Amino acid sequence: MQTNLFNYTTLSTRLEKSTRTLFVTLNRPDWKNSFRLEMLFELESLFAWCTTRVEINTIFIDSSSSEFSTGLDLDALATLSATQLDKINTKLQKIIFAMMQLPQTIVMDLGHGTQTIASEFALGADIRIAHKDAKVSFNHCHYGLVPAAGGMSMLSTLVSPAFSRSWVLSGAALNESVLTNSGFITEAYSENKNEVIAQTLSRIANLAPVQRIQAKLGLFETLRNQFESGIVMDRKIAKASMITEDWRSKKPESKEFGFMPAKSMSYSVKLSLIKTEETQPTEH
Q1: Is residue 252 assigned to a domain?
Q2: What is the gyration radius of the CA atoms in the chain, in angstroms?
Q3: Do the Cβ atoms of 29 and 61 come closer than 8 Å?
Q4: What is the CATH number of the domain that holds 153?
Q5: Is residue 269 part of a domain?
Q6: Is residue 122 a contact partner of residue 151, using CB atoms and an 8 Å limit?
Q7: pTM above 0.85, yes or no
Q8: Which of 1, 157, 191, 258 has the most crowded CB, counting CB atoms within 10 A?
């Protein structure tokens, strides 16, 4: 039996009582299910509601499109200000951190893949599955950004640092073999998608709920200090990288970005410091 829950504008939700699963579907295919602030606020509200709903065993997150999400709204990226990007990164970082502490086990179906901040959002899941043809990219640098919502600090604690360095610094589209061998996804499906989902949710439903919740808490606490220090570092790096405004350098008629050369960085930093000093209030 299924029970409909909330009336969100970016998410579809339903509760399946047989396995005590809350199904959450990103449901803005017209946005390519990108994480605009409206969607992030709704996710934050939903997860806040979940914090005391210990009777729910599992939160299952998927998407209404074959590709889970583009993450950033790539069509509108050049129009975003540094303040808007910082707000998106900060909000998403808090959501991921909260997901790791929820009493429910979070299962995420990445479908045919993710990129940019959608790949970071996946870090908040306890179990990740995907289609065998899925491609996952931490390709922020391709768009003149850094993975500031957890793709530097959290990713390095959840998979081997050798993997995270390669993934972020190459921006490569990672295939199923790489994703399963690294542990980023636990299972890949093809025609047996529904069977894989049903088996996963059934296994979780058969666990002792108190011990499952305590085990998740314990697993989080072993990494808490690394996460908390990493969050601070991510924000500092993100702020420094935004000085170039490279994400805004794509011309409407071009597929390429006119990125700032690395040798211009020192001048850009000095200029930003001057601008900051000029905007500081004068003391009397």
Answers
A1: no
A2: 20
A3: no
A4: 3.90.226.10
A5: no
A6: no
A7: yes
A8: 157
Q: Specify the pairing of strand 105-109 against strand 58-63.
A: parallel
**pLDDT values of the chain reduced to their tens digit, one per residue, 284 residues:** 444 578 899 999 999 999 999 999 999 999 999 999 999 999 999 999 999 999 999 999 999 999 999 999 998 999 999 999 999 999 999 999 999 999 999 999 999 999 999 999 999 999 999 999 999 999 999 999 999 999 898 998 899 999 999 999 999 999 999 999 999 999 999 999 999 999 999 999 999 999 999 999 999 999 888 888 888 888 888 888 888 889 988 665 566 777 888 777 665 544 444 454 444 555 44
Reading the block at residue 223, the tokens are 């990494």
CB 46 within 8 A of CB 80: no
- What are the residues whose beta carbons fall under 8 Å from the beta carbon of 249, sequence distance 6 or more? 78, 144, 257, 258, 259, 260
Residue with token string 């314990």: 218
Looking only at the bridges linking them, the beta strands covering 21-26 and 11-16 are: antiparallel
CA distance 256 to 271: 26
Residue 211 phi, psi (nearest 5): -70, -35
CB atoms within 10 A of CB 181: 11
Identify whether 255 is part of a domain. no
97 near 228, Cβ under 8 Å?
Answer: no
